[in-house]
C-alpha cells in the first residue's frame, strides 16, 4: 500500500470513529447514563443530543471530503483530519471544564463505576478513544505530506 492510500485509509478510519463511536457508545451502550438518565434535565439531554449530531456531522463531512475530492491535496486532507478529530479534541478539552468528569464515579443511575487505573492514574475509555482517533488522523495527515507532491497547474 502506498503512502497516499495509507494516509487516506487512516483519515477514513478517524472519520468513521467520529461518526460511529460517540453515538454507539453514549446513545446505545451507555444510554442509561446519558439520554435515558432520569437525573438529567431536558436541557442537559439537549446538549448530549447536540454532541451526537456534532459527531455525526463532523465525521460525515470528513468522509465527504475524502470520498468526493478527486485529488488528495494537502489542504483537503488537513481539513479531513481536523474534521475527523475535532469532536475528540472537544471531548478532551471538555474534561478540563470545572464540574465535568470523564467517568461515571458516583453516578446516581449507573452507580459507583471505577475506571481502570494504570500506575495510580485513571484510564478513561472515552479519552483513550479520543487520543487514538486524534493520533490516527494526525498520522494520516502527516503521511499526506510525505507523499509525492500533487500536480499543480503552472
Characterization of the model:
The chain is mainly α. The model has no long low-confidence stretch (mean pLDDT 88). It is elongated and about 50 Å long. The protein starts with a helix and ends in an 8-residue tail after the last helix. The protein contains four helices and two strands. The protein is 63% helix and 3% strand. A two-stranded antiparallel sheet has the order 1-2.
Oligomer: single chain
The biggest beta sheet reads:
2 strands, antiparallel
Helix and strand element order: HHHEEH
Number of separate helices:
4
Strand order of the largest sheet: 1-2
Mean pLDDT: 88
Rg value = 18 Å
What is the structural class? Answer: mainly alpha
- Helical fraction equals 55-70%
* Unreliable sequence segments: none
Q: What separation lies between the terminal Cα atoms?
A: 30 Å
Task: Estimate the strand proportion.
Answer: under 5%
Per DSSP E runs of 2 or more residues, the count of β-strands stands at 2
Shape: elongated
Ordered list of secondary-structure elements with their pairings:
Layout: H1 3-29, H2 42-68, H3 74-94, E1 117-118, E2 121-122, H4 125-146
Antiparallel strand pairs: 1-2
Helix pairs in contact: 1-2, 1-3, 1-4, 2-3, 3-4
Label this structure with key terms.
154 residues; mainly alpha; two-stranded antiparallel ribbon
Please give a quick description of this structure:
This protein has 4 helices and 2 strands; from the N terminus they run H-H-H-E-E-H. With 154 residues, the protein is mostly helical. Strand 1 (117-118) and strand 2 form a beta hairpin.
Amino acid at each position: 500500500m502506498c503512502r497516499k492510500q495509507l494516509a487516506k485509509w487512516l483519515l477514513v478510519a478517524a472519520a468513521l470513529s467520529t461518526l460511529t463511536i460517540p453515538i454507539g457508545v453514549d446513545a446505545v451502550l451507555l444510554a442509561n447514563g446519558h439520554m435515558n438518565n432520569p437525573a438529567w434535565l431536558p436541557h442537559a439531554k439537549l446538549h448530549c443530543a447536540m454532541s451526537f449530531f456534532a459527531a455525526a456531522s463532523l465525521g460525515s463531512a470528513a468522509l465527504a471530503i475524502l470520498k468526493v475530492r478527486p485529488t488528495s491535496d494537502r489542504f483537503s486532507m488537513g481539513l479531513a483530519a481536523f474534521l475527523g478529530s475535532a469532536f475528540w479534541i472537544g471531548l478532551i478539552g471538555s474534561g478540563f471544564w470545572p464540574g465535568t468528569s470523564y467517568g461515571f464515579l458516583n453516578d446516581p443511575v449507573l452507580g459507583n463505576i471505577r475506571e481502570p487505573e494504570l500506575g495510580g492514574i485513571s484510564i478513561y475509555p472515552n479519552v483513550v478513544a479520543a487520543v487514538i482517533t486524534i493520533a490516527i488522523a494526525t498520522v494520516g495527515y502527516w503521511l499526506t505530506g510525505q507523499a509525492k507532491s500533487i500536480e499543480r497547474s503552472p
